[in-house]
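Tutorial handout. Part one gives the primary structure; part two gives the three-dimensional structure as tokens.
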Amino acid sequence: MEFLTIGELSLRLRQGERTAVDLCAQAIEAATRSETRAFSDIIAASALAEAAASDARRRKGENLGFLDGIPIAVKDLIDTTPATCKAGLQHLSSYRPTRDAVAVERLRRAGAVIIGVTETDPGAFSTVTPQVTNPLSPTRIAGGSSGGSAAAIAAGIVPAAIGTDTGGSIRIPAACCSIYGFKPTWGRVDDTGVRPLARSLDHVGPMALNVADLRIVQSVLEGAEPPTRPASADPHLRIGTSYAYFADADTVVQRAMNRVFETLAEAGMMLETSSIPLPDDILDFHMVNLSKEAAYYHDTVFRNEWRHYPQIARATVARGRKVSADEIVRAEYLRRKRRADVDAALAGINALILPTMPIDAPLRAVGSIELGGRMVTTLEATIRYTAMFNQTGHPVVSMPATLLPDGRALSIQVVGRRGEDDALLSLALYIEKILALDVDYAAIIATHGTLAYAAGRATS
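Part two.
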């Protein structure tokens, strides 16, 4: 486990200190032996061939860019040849796509070495990926539905991975595993070849060890040139937040947010109180259009496979079948209104900053959580602060912001204006520099994570 970023690995490849085949073989070995069980399929032969092709280009003096020769993982509901892409669903356990999703095509065209596909909770209906172990804290969830992608990065197997986000499924596992995740503006990344949960809410985006790597991968996913300019260092940025939005967060989260705002203010940023819709304003209708769209897809494509579905998927689709036309009309009206509300809040500021979750990563054994004096499901607690931006389509970076006693981090969301994704990533890069957080993944894994857990089992 080296925990080197794309930028660091790319430099070593260019300088001849490493080869792509070496990096690929190391990643495959790590994925195979890791106790995180982050991968549902490892495609060693094709990965090694891609790595060899990268090395051959480099010997000729050719280079396709930052991702050339870099091992990357892809969530297994994104079509990736020649992998089995089961999306966590039993009846898809033999599904092998005949062509790559557009996002994977673009990664491979940029020279990325796809070493395998990562575990998804069944159908991406939940925020818990039960088959994956959080490498930093095995008693806590890795998050979902992109839990395998997050765990693969936090375990040091790959420097970056691709996930999807319908209610928070990039940002929540990124927060649970103390890494970085980016949900771009809705529609910015082509989702052809991505198995849907709810098309109008689904987003494809990158997960990585820092913001710079998010920018590199996102540019490739968009089919654009990788950014070359550093982030703006304007110290007079205007940042907004809504304390009412996270009034029900745990005390540890509240204190963490205060530290973040103090640190940013000391760096010269101006903090303003913004008026934005509250979580209940979104959750009131979030499961209306989500469940309706999910029911339409799964009833149309997999009508005869219900005996294989887990309870949460059954419940979501059953709910969607009962959604009336009037409920959909109301939900879409509210979606447009909330989008306009967030647009208005962002009109006079550079970004909004909010917690990613109201809690630390939930314990695996816990199915309900006390939040604001009431008991809610783990699903409701984890999507509480993230779902709004799936409904509104705004770009969001989730990033570690303050350290916990065991070395893990609590995360913030940095929300930008729709369509201004690179400006948001540039701002997040600047915030990352100010916060100067050092998550020592290797030390956490050895002391509190999967290595410590394995050692404890061996001696028990």
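Part three, for discussion. The chain has a mean pLDDT of 95. Residues 207 and 303 are 33 Å apart (CA to CA).
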